[in-house]
Design a protein that fits this description.
Radius of gyration: 12 Å
Low-confidence stretches: none
Number of helices: 2
Shape: globular
Structural class: alpha+beta
Strand order of the largest sheet: 2-1-5-3-4
Number of strands: 5
Oligomer: single chain
Helix content: 10-25%
CATH architecture: Roll
CATH class: Alpha Beta
Number of domains: 1
Mean pLDDT: 94
Largest sheet: 5 strands, mixed
């Protein structure tokens, strides 16, 4: 089942400059793993040493924050868009 992962500007060099990548997955975790397999380096940027998503990495399935769904175990249907959105701080 193909899903689209939207890549933020800061991480696009890891994806060959692409703003979107299509991967086969049925959960967010599978999609992020497939993204790292296709474009190595994503895992280290998205996950901490404990294997959990970094605090400043927000992931959305369609327009829903996965923190309010089932986290990385959230299911994704074919054609779904997953967005990686780094947190922005400042003032």
């Amino acid at each position: 089942m193909a899903v689209t992962v939207r890549i933020p500007t800061q991480l696009r060099p890891l994806a060959g400059g692409n703003s979107e990548v299509s991967v086969e997955a049925s959960t967010v975790a599978e999609a992020l793993k497939a993204l790292d397999v296709a474009h190595p380096g994503f895992h280290d940027r998205l996950y901490d040493d404990n294997g959990t998503l970094r605090r400043f990495v927000n992931v959305f399935v369609a327009d829903e924050d996965i923190r309010f769904l089932s986290g990385v175990d959230s299911p994704v249907a074919p054609g779904t868009t997953i967005s990686i959105v780094p947190a922005v701080a400042g003032g």
